DNA sequence: CCAACGATAAACACCA
DNA sequence: CTGGTGTTTATCGTTG
């Protein structure tokens, strides 16, 4: 608790003593900067187009997806994916080249903009339905009529959304039925639902629609879930009986019948009507028959800010579901690939990658799938952590670049499991591992029998485990030394036969503060953007906030050997988390066996903390995960679950 | 824009 | 002197 300031103080001094300036050779390689990719498209596409695209995409995504699945799961490897800041899963990527994915759209446009667009579109639709001239002379009565039509348009749109959801659901169910989705039947769904847990939605609704009471908000949230869950039944059991229609009974007395609606209604089913209730998100108003429902629709859900906003929210919901769906499908592909092919040919991956990864270029195998890096389909741009593809600097410069970006290390990548699962891959592929030097070193050390290594052994570990480090030596060795020295978490211990390095786990934990502290953006990213697979652990951890049950059920991330509940969460941080469990199976003292601390000759700052450590490991097993600095993984969880004792 | 971080490079010290 | 090991400082890029 004392130190840890050394480095900062250093940094604050901008002194440029030696204008070293020798870094010129960087050749600006990483300049590719995709970071801004979300900015500019703004004025280029007309609002209507955007909305059209969005709607089309929703449907197209489903179609594509089904096609894709049907056609033997062969999806074109695409690199276009990099366009989107958030890795867009394959199915999305397939259409992303020309089309803006909903996701992108969301990013491109601010909520207000979206809303504005929606309104514009609605206005436009209005105009389409009625001659503009007519508009000019609208009486209030006519206006209401117009609104009504709009309402029906909205319904149509809403219907599309719901259809999407149905498709998604059905597909998942199909897969489950076929046993292709190993998740518990509910797992995927649950996850999806969890992805938009009521509280999120509630907030969403609140934000958007200015819902008055929280109760109502809750209702709406439920309504959303309903639309997701029960939409099947809604349309599956059309209640043909009550399907006599009522268009005439419209409030405004207009006999005009919107083409689409009339069709819907005559068929006896309305996507927004089922089980005698209005299925408008958050509504649940009881309607005895279709006529009443239509009336209700037009009265309560006419075009206004709120409806518009709700519509927008629904769009988001759909988008997120799409994304999840795509990710799940990606996962499925990997799994099937794994099952149908012999898991032992990392070759396909080496190929594309072989020409070294450039600085900042991190080519990921397919790590997050939890299977071997097979996936011949493509080398997984898809589920890869969002940072993986950015800045593809293709310039040939130093072979050594940043090992990984922070996000993957901090809250996305379960390094331990990834490494474990893909060790073969890393061994053979000249790919830069997406981990920090620190975590790698730590892993190396913890993995050793004594949890201590000499520098040279560390070197060896690097070269043994990673093809990448076989090639580019000088720099990374320096980096390793640098890291060892710099980080307090690495403790040099004078040994009989020399010095060895050990890990001070406490320190290691200390130096990684932020992570996913439930920051809204993060959560959002998790839900919508980042690799689902890779996120699962942390994702679940996050979700655990609202429901712990999820944690137990779907071992999406192959909980290493999770003995206890606590251990369940372990694994989404660093390399070592696995190691800790494996190595310490009994004693579970991840960091220090007494022996190691023979005599910390050189402890960077203060070995003081060391004292505590003895107790900590125990607490791990005991399930007392607090009180002391937790191993990274738990810590992640800890931050997500304020106080979850897991009970 | 800023701070925190991580990566990289390099200077320098120590020692066998 | 050399090379391995460690430490320290500086700079740059990314991220939040």
From TrEMBL:
CDD domains, A to Z: FH_FOXP4 (cd20067)
Coiled coil: none
Domain of life: Eukaryota
One GO cellular component, as annotated: nucleus
Disordered, as annotated region: 1-45, 216-270, 579-647
InterPro entries: FH_FOXP4, Fork_head_dom, FOXP, FOXP-CC, TF_fork_head_CS_2, WH-like_DNA-bd_sf, WH_DNA-bd_sf
Comp. bias (Polar residues): 1-18, 579-598
Positions of the DNA-binding region: 432-505
Any one GO MF annotation of this record: zinc ion binding
Annotated transmembrane regions: none
Ranges where the Fork-head domain occurs: 432-505
Gene3D superfamilies according to UniProt: 1.20.5.340, Winged helix-like DNA-binding domain superfamily/Winged helix DNA-binding domain
Acidic residues composition-biased segments: 635-647
Basic and acidic residues bias: start-end ranges: 258-268
Descriptive protein name: Forkhead box P4
